[in-house]
Amino acid sequence: MRHRTDYRVLPFSDDTSAVFITGSHRLLLAPAATAERLESGVDSLLPEERRAWDRLRTEAGIGDEANRTRLRNSALSDGADFAVNVNLTNVCNLACAYCFAEGGDYGRITEAMGEHSIGWIFDFVRRRAAPGRRVRFEFFGGEPLANAGVIRKICERARDLAEREGTEFVHRISTNLTLLPQGVEELFRDHRFIVSVSIDGGRRVQDANRPSKNGRGSYDRIVRNLTRLRRACGDDITLVARMTIATAEPTLTENVLDLWRLDLFDYFQIYPGVYPVDRDTKVPVALTLGDRKLSEPRDVRYINHFLQPGVAEQFRDFLLHYPNLFSPENRFKGVLEYERTVQMITEGATALAFCSGGRTYYTHSPDGSISPCHRLVGDRSFDVGTGPEGITREHPEWRRTVDEHPVCGACWARYLCGGGCRQENHVATGDLNDLNRESCQYQLMLAEEVIRMLARSAADYRERSRARYDDLFVSCGRPVVPNGRRPLDPAADHRPFRVLC
Ligand code: SF4
Ligand code: SF4
Prior knowledge:
binds iron/sulfur cluster, 501 residues, iron, alpha/beta, single chain, rSAM
């Protein structure tokens, strides 16, 4: 077994380190001196440590090859719901500071989705969703509530189908929530929507990052609409704060606390912003604003905010405080990406891929195209089908396993991460399967810091129910299956190691 390939030692205090086992997702605690020897390799362990390690390996299935087989033999439908991203319109009323960097797809789709697409979408579901699989609609844009009529029609048709054939549907929307057309509260309540709201922090941050196209701030309108929705829908909706972090001040912790104090959100999602700077990687990006194209594609230098000096420290600081956010006085239930990672460790589960793009997740757009990824919409070379015909070409490039990748295949975090975002790879390297090193660094940091947080955490945090995470479309629907690790005898002596999960 090799350090950084088959296990990872992560010091988190002066006297104790976390030891994460790649194959089984077991998390151990070890005295610092033992962990230091383990970092040099298992052959450096003292004889009694080596005996305990080998015992653990036998009893817990440490170091087995089960995941490689599991990934190779898995069906596309394993581990995630079938999901259709419904790209309703390119129209958006905000002018977010970093919008141009989100893949440049805005401006390529020039119309709103018409009702004729609804039949195509339901035909697609009928042909592609595995029998008995739950189906999720992801309403997306532009600002999808600018085309609320089509959302309503899809929900009504889904309800009919659910009553006739028993298919279970989940509805989720990504919205800036500056618009709340008449009847939307009832629609969300009746169909138990998951409402993912783009909001980056308190008023100062939100108004600077996400102003209206007329230059006015958006914070007050959004909070007013959030309050209205929560009052009208109670617990029948799930509200998610979708935060993009792109400024050093206020800190990540302060931004989260500003929203947490509102006590309106059930979950948070926290994304690193990507924005232009004067150095680092060059990529061809067309500058667009809503439906207006501001420039032809040109080389723009961009950077992932989490890799800026001091931001990793902010992230670590936030994770130190993170377990304290769970309080009986607040409806907060977690940051989705962190909790999904924790779930894979506490319950013993393996990611079959980074996301469900090109597996069980497709985007239907107003121009009738079908894309494996919502961020690649409009780039015809990535289209894999059309509304009337369904899938028209195979796309194996979306289905390579993490084990087949020359870099990811030797990464200790491979069965947590699944191999990185293919669209971000394409932006950085021009190839879906050639790693975007910055995104990879971020994924590694996320895995390391969440493991440290878990290693420090109390039992009541580790034992929280995480049953809903299959429902919530975390990380573009990362497909996750149980890894079949053997339960350990709680009375067994593994000293100097302590098995945490
Ligand atoms: S993208 Fe990076 S973190 Fe993810 S599996 Fe590949 S090497 Fe590991
Ligand atoms: S994870 Fe990346 S490649 Fe996958 S669907 Fe999301 S944006 Fe697209």
